[in-house]
Amino acid sequence: MGKLFLIVDMLNDFIEPTGKLYFEKGQAVVAPIQRLKAAFRAVGAPQLYVNDAHPPDSQEFAVWPPHCLVGSWGARIVDALAPGPGDIVLTKDALTLFAEAAAEGLLRGFGASRLYLAGVATEYCVKACALDAVAQGFSVTVIVDAIAGVDLTPGDAERALATMEQAGVMFATTDAVIAGLA
């Protein structure tokens, strides 16, 4: 069945120290995601970046400070994970890619039945994308050493993992995913 790698919100505003919603744990997942990108590319599996890109009047700013504004440095993918040839960059003005009407059809158009997720933040966009993907009938594997949580309240990321597990999301390490692709 078709495998697809989703890289969630690896953007300057979250990963770079001068970013508007920077959190230190986000930098730790850059290296595992680099390895995963190379492995998925080696087997010809599609790679999709799922990125926040908010207009100035985004409803998200009722909860969060302005970040990842369309066209800004903060909304750009970090240099270390720059898209390569054939990679697809999708934008969203919500926690989940599936808030965009065409998302499910696009993923199915790639022949995807299994989605592998990496990126930030565990308890927000990663969780929302994973839960919505399961609800749309995709098999979902979250790569646990390639995600990072903010943990505004201690334990938020762990609770998000438990919620995802209850919904049927599977978990694997970078090494296990790479070994399974070979």
TrEMBL record:
<dbReference type="InterPro" id="IPR000868">
    <property type="entry name" value="Isochorismatase-like_dom"/>
</dbReference>
<dbReference type="GO" id="GO:0016787">
    <property type="term" value="F:hydrolase activity"/>
</dbReference>
<dbReference type="Pfam" id="PF00857">
    <property type="entry name" value="Isochorismatase"/>
</dbReference>
<feature type="domain" description="Isochorismatase-like">
    <location>
        <begin position="4"/>
        <end position="175"/>
    </location>
</feature>
<dbReference type="InterPro" id="IPR036380">
    <property type="entry name" value="Isochorismatase-like_sf"/>
</dbReference>
<keyword id="KW-0378">Hydrolase</keyword>
<dbReference type="InterPro" id="IPR050272">
    <property type="entry name" value="Isochorismatase-like_hydrls"/>
</dbReference>
<protein>
    <submittedName>
        <fullName>Isochorismatase family protein</fullName>
    </submittedName>
</protein>
